[in-house]
Amino acid sequence: MAKHFLVLCVCIVTAYGCQSTNQSTSQSLPTKPVDTKASEIPQYRAPSGAYSALSQPYSSAQAKRDVSILTRTKSAIDRGDLRAAQILISGILLPPRNTMLADVYQRLMVQIQIRQKQPKHAVQSLLNLQSMVVEDVETTRQVCAQIDAIACVVRALVTQQLLAGQLDSIAEQTRIWATLQGSTTLPQDFDPSNTPSILQLMERVGEIIQRPDAERLVANFSHNWIRLHHAITRAGTPREAQTLWQSWQDQHPDHPAVKTPPPSLKLLAQYEAPSLTVALPLSGRLSGAGKAVRDGMVAGYLSEQDPTRAASVKADGLSVSPAAATSITFIDSNAIDDASLLNRIVESASDVIVGPLLKERGQRLLANREASRLARTQEQAAPAWIVLNRIDESGRSQSTSIQGPVYQFASAIEDEAHTIAKHLRAREYERLMVVTNRESWAYRATQALRSDWQGAIVLADFERPREITDTVGNAMGVADSKSRHGDLQRVLNEEIEFLPRGREDLDAVVAFTSVLESQALVPALQFHFADELPVFATSQSARSESLSDIAGFNVTELPLLANPDPVAAAMSAVFDLGEQPLVDLYALGLDAYRLAAWVHWIQTHANHWDEGFRLRLNLASGQLLVGRHGQIERELVLAEISQHGTLSLSQANGGAVH
């Protein structure tokens, strides 16, 4: 066993030799001194008074009537009576002729539309303003936040800083970073700011600052904030993030984030690699799965080390601890009982516990940890625990101040359904046909989709692949069409040439089907004239050598396969993961190692974070949003299958950020 594992490590080291960087160099990088003193930043002038037109005198009867309606509308909005506000403002059939009153009308429409969650209409109302004022910047931020137009939100926040002369405010910098980290409506790479109307609104926001270089400053600062965020979220570990943060500072010395960095960026310089104890089934029935996770973790471990150093591997407990900082001890959870396993974990005194893989085993260990010595004193923090499963169906964190946080991390089909739901909402679809088999995973995916997407669903469930064509036809109402044809023939008492057509009110198809079932779905949709509908499916449809059979499908997939970072790509090449049925577990292992490093960093600096703290990471198994108390949200990328059977990121994932 030891000889096999040593060969495995040597193979991985060889594969990483041309891609790894000297980590000892990155560790010794000097920390750039940060000037926290307030700099002299003048307040930029901008027009103000969003509703000052309501207090101006007017001579025409129409203008006076408009003022009366608009004033009462504003009062209704202020007291939260949207129904009254809507009725009142509808009394003005067209925007007032007076320019200032017309702008008041548009601003009130925006306030109503924001509260009614109609952000796209609110964007158009803002663009109808003939002149923007300082108050419109905050309104723009609120509107863009509703549709997760992150670039637009950041642009508005930077503009507010310039207007207030607060470019050196730590609170304001932290607000921008938290905005970038906390957005969860859509995957980060999809940004509705790329749509023309949002871009136009962003440009108009910059115009209200009455200074020639203001628009350039706002655009540059905003763009570099987003570039920094993309770099940090792609960092596998805090050590890598520290190097990227230092490099970014060197490239943008005049950026506000360099002068007064948010605490989470500043604290990247304070990182000590953790000690890990990993409990996996390395023998017995599930040894294949356990070893896949282990190999993924070793790949992550070796990517942080100097490949010229030899890794020492010890068969007893599979302890990996070369000269670099992180130490890992692997325990075969199948070789010992619960009590012995918990004792081994306690004796390891590790900073982070990873595993076990089995749900029932994890539940038992967590139930017994309170009585163990894992609940440490105030002087010695309890270890964080990363359980490689969903211990409870809700996925809630389990943590106390004494026992330390528990993170539930697994490759769950529900995550793929939630990802699909977000993209469906982004496209504003209203009616779906969900084609699903009757396996448990498909049932769970359907339930997750229903909980996350509130539009109408026409369900087409089948038991055997040969039933798919009839099932799709029934869901599309073809049977009703045939029935009407029969009725008409009986009334006319003659044969009528007839080609049954399905319903035309569907926006998309969601397929919770296997590879073979997905291939059978394609001709079924063609037969019922539904082949023009966009199809969304999970990775269960995409694990095949002949993906060209389902060309055009949009599938949720691991970034490891669709958009790998260099470490994930190297691991994929070493283990030939494109043909590996356990690819999800390799990705899980790689990210478990990375996640352990980040969790240790979060817990080390726990007193710096508020309850809303979120850390966004774009890793091999998906985009993770990690909280301080054990929360993990996971999204996958959405990839489109080309005519050649290759995966390419859909426009929603690959849009450029301005």
Key features of this structure:
658 residues; alpha/beta; Rossmann fold; 3 domains; 17 strands
Task: Note down, in words, how this protein is organized.
The chain has 658 residues and is of the alpha/beta class. It folds into three domains: 211 residues, no CATH class; 208 residues, Rossmann fold; 158 residues, Response regulator (Rossmann fold). Helix content is 47%, strand content 11%. The chain contains 26 helices and 17 strands. The strands form three sheets. Strands 2-3-4-1-5-6-7 form a seven-stranded mixed beta sheet, sandwiched between helices. Strands 9-8-10-11-12-16-17 form a seven-stranded mixed beta sheet, sandwiched between helices. Strands 13-14-15 form a three-stranded antiparallel beta sheet. Strand 8, helix 19 and strand 9 form a beta-alpha-beta unit. Helix 4 packs antiparallel against helix 5 and helix 5 packs antiparallel against helix 6. The longest helix has 22 residues. The radius of gyration is 29 Å and the shape is globular. The N terminus and C terminus are likely disordered.
